Amino acid sequence: MGRLFVITLDGSVYSCKHCQTHLALLDDIISKSFHCRHGKAYLFDRVVNITVGEKEERLMMTGMHTVVDIFCVGCGSIVGWKYEAAHEKTQKYKEGKFILERFKVLGPDGSNYLMAAC
């Protein structure tokens, strides 16, 4: 097994709630109006310190998408997914973008989703 290199981000950071590995910057949020099984989800332009799963077709509220689940490199927890392809023209803006499930990450102020929802 190779050596694990983890990127440390400067600024307001979203991190894995299990191991605090940095995942994304507040400045890279495109939208906070997404939802997932566990509640809110945020669309990001850039996410670091992840590995990806297998491509799969997933039917979502906005239509069929090709996605890969994304996992924290620090602990292996699933933290969201990446849009590989959108089948609807109106959804093409999501391609190459990342969803982080708010329930699975700590916010820039260290808050978790349950605290943020109150």
From TrEMBL:
Keywords: Metal-binding, Zinc. The keyword Metal-binding applies. One of its GO terms (molecular function) is metal ion binding. Coiled coil: none annotated. Pfam families: Yippee-Mis18 (PF03226). Belongs to the yippee family. This is Protein yippee-like. Residues 12-109 form the Yippee domain. PROSITE patterns: YIPPEE.
